[in-house]
Automatic annotation (TrEMBL):
UniProt keyword Transmembrane helix, yes or no: yes
Domain RNase H type-1, residue spans: 45-165
Keywords: Membrane, Transmembrane, Transmembrane helix
Keyword Hydrolase: no
The protein's name in its UniProt record: RNase H type-1 domain-containing protein
TM regions (residue ranges): 72-95
Entries under InterPro entries matching the protein: RNase_H-like (IPR053151), RNase_H-like_dom_plant (IPR044730), RNaseH-like_sf (IPR012337), RNaseH_domain (IPR002156), RNaseH_sf (IPR036397)
Name of a matching Pfam family: RVT_3
């Protein structure tokens, strides 16, 4: 099973390279993969999505250790809001859960480039996101260490799965002590550090 997945990824990469050679387009491939945190740190990955047609926002997140092992997760039915606000809400809910669980050192990743840039002070915070970003900054001070980084979506498939899994949940935040069925393949991909072409 594992070797089949690795072979499929290599085949896709080679197909893209061959297509570029035939078209004469010079393109550098970017390989993206989830990376585990340091031994004394937990990694929180979050993501959000909008349900087609309804405009309702959902999200999810998961905590993993240095071996890539699931430690805890959550899904959230946010309601009507923008995708940017939803991404920030998910990150905030993840921090709140981490504090409640007693986690002290976190590495946080989201595929929302603008959201992460706002938190890091590299992008002007829009008026409708100011309160959430301020809550994130305030809450981060309650930990020994919180590092926030952007991760391309190809390295964030596990959190993406949870953001869609949340569609069946009622409003609010719902904690997950065990990973839902269907997430195991993405957890395995990440533990094996399988890269995806961007």
């Amino acid at each position: 099973m594992v070797s089949r997945i690795i072979n499929m990824v290599k085949t896709v990469e080679e197909t893209i390279r061959a297509a570029d050679r035939c078209s004469g387009v010079a393109r550098s491939l970017i390989l993206v993969a989830w990376r585990p945190p340091a031994a004394d740190t937990l990694k929180l990955n979050t993501d959000a999505s909008l349900e087609g047609g309804s405009g309702r926002a959902f999200g999810g997140g998961l905590f993993r250790d240095a071996t890539g092992t699931w430690r805890y997760g959550f899904v959230v039915n946010i309601g009507l809001c923008s995708i940017l606000s939803a991404e920030l809400w998910c990150l905030l809910h993840g921090l709140r859960l981490a504090k409640a669980l007693g986690f002290r050192k976190l590495e946080v990743e989201s595929d929302s480039f603008i959201g992460i840039s706002m938190i890091k002070g590299n992008f002007e915070v829009s008026i409708n996101c100011r309160a959430i970003v301020q809550c994130v900054h305030n809450l981060a001070q309650d930990f020994d260490s919180v590092v926030v980084n952007h991760l391309h979506r190809e390295g964030n498939f596990a959190a993406d799965f949870l953001s869609h899994y949340a569609y069946s949940f009622s409003r609010g935040v719902h904690t997950l002590e065990t990973p839902p069925i269907g997430l195991s393949i993405w957890l395995l991909h990440d533990r094996l550090r399988i890269s995806y072409v961007r």
